C-alpha cells in the first residue's frame, strides 16, 4: 500500500514536470509576429509649401493610421489624410525642413532616397492704393502695390485678380507686385497666384460705395455656414474664424437646421468661456459703419453671461466689469469704452430671451484702420447664444 502511494506521488510529480518543461518551450503556444520594414519608392511632389499635400508611395505601410508617423527633415507631420499599404497622403507640416521624408510604421523606420525641398511660404505685408482718397480706395487705373515676402524669383507665371477678373501686373519681384485696378469693378478683393500658391489680400472699394459691404470685410458671416473640420456632426469649427485657446466648437448644426449657427455655448460638452474670443482680421477704409448681428436663440441659466460683438483696432480687450442686464442677465462688459484705446465699438448680443432679434451699433473711422472684429464671451453653467448673420453697412462721412 505504501509503495502504491509512493508510486502515485512520483507519477504526479513526473507529469507536472513534463507540463512545466513543454510549457516553457519557445513558440509552444505564442508566436511572435514579425512584420516587414516599410519601403519608400517615391515622394510626389519633391518640393512644396507648408500645408501642401504630398503623396508617399511604397510598400508595407499597412492600413492603420495610428501605427504610422511621418516627418519632413525631422519635423513631425500632424495631418495624415489617409494610409494604405502602398500609399500615404500627408500635409507638409509647419516648420518643415529640407531633407529626407521619414516614415515609421510601429517600430520600423525608413527614409526617402531623395530630399524634399521646402519652398519658403509667401506672405503679404501690406497693400496700398495710389487713390488720393486713401489706401483701401481704388477706381479704374489706380496702381495697387502689394508688398510681402517670398513671392518667388520666377515671376513669369505670376497672376493677379480682383475678385474673379484677372488684372494686369505692371511689375513684379520677390517682395513687391504692382497691379492696375481694372475698369468695371466698384469693389473687390485682390488675390495673387504665385506659381500656383494662392494669397488673398485686402478689399478695395470706390470711395463712393455705400450699403452692405459685409462680403468685402468678413468671410463665412451668414447661413449656410462653412465648417473647416472634416466631420459632419452636430458641432463643428467655423472656417476663416480665429479662436482663443480653449474656445471649443463654434458652429452648431441642429437636425432641424442644417444651415448651422455660429454658437457660443457653455455646458453640453462645451467648456466655460472666460474672456474667450473668436474673430477675423481685416482693414476698414474711412467711413461710417453700422454692424448688425442677427440672434436666432439666446438661453441663460445662471452665473455670468455676456457675449458682445466687438471691433478693435488691435487686440480685442478683455471684459473686466460685471453689470446687471435685461431679464436678469449678469452681463459682462468693459469698464468704459473711453478707457479702452483699441476699442472701436461693441454691443452685447445677449440681451433677451425673445429671439429671434437683432442688435446693432455704429462707429466712424476718419482713416483706414486694421481691425479685429468678432465675439468676446464671459459665460458659465449652461447658456448659449446662436447667430444666423452678421451685416456690415457703410455710409460716406459727411
Please give the oligomerization state of what you see: single chain
Q: Any idea of the CATH topology of the largest domain?
A: Jelly Rolls
Domain unit count: 3
The top level CATH class name of the largest domain: Mainly Beta
Largest β sheet strand count, sense and barrel closure: 7 strands, antiparallel
Structural commentary:
By secondary structure, the chain is mainly beta. The protein has three domains: 39-118, Sandwich (Immunoglobulin-like), CATH 2.60.40; 123-208, Immunoglobulins (Immunoglobulin-like), CATH 2.60.40.10; 217-395, Galactose-binding domain-like (Jelly Rolls, Sandwich). 7% of the residues lie in helices and 48% in strands. The protein contains two helices and 31 strands. It has helices spanning 2-23, 214-217; strands at residues 39-44, 47-48, 53-59, 68-72, 75-76, 80-84, 87-91, 99-105, 108-118, 123-129, 143-149, 158-162, 165-167, 169-172, 176-180, 187-194, 197-205, 211-212, 235-236, 242-243, 251-252, 261-265, 273-284, 287-299, 305-312, 321-324, 330-333, 343-348, 357-365, 369-379, 384-395. Strands 18, 19, 21, 22, 24, 29 and 31 form a seven-stranded antiparallel β-sheet that branches. Strands 2-9-8-4-5 form a five-stranded mixed β-sheet, with no helix packed on it. The protein has a five-stranded antiparallel β-sheet with strand order 20-23-30-25-28, with no helix packed on it. Strand 6 and strand 7 (87-91) form a beta hairpin. The model is unreliable at 1-6 and 12-26 (pLDDT under 50).
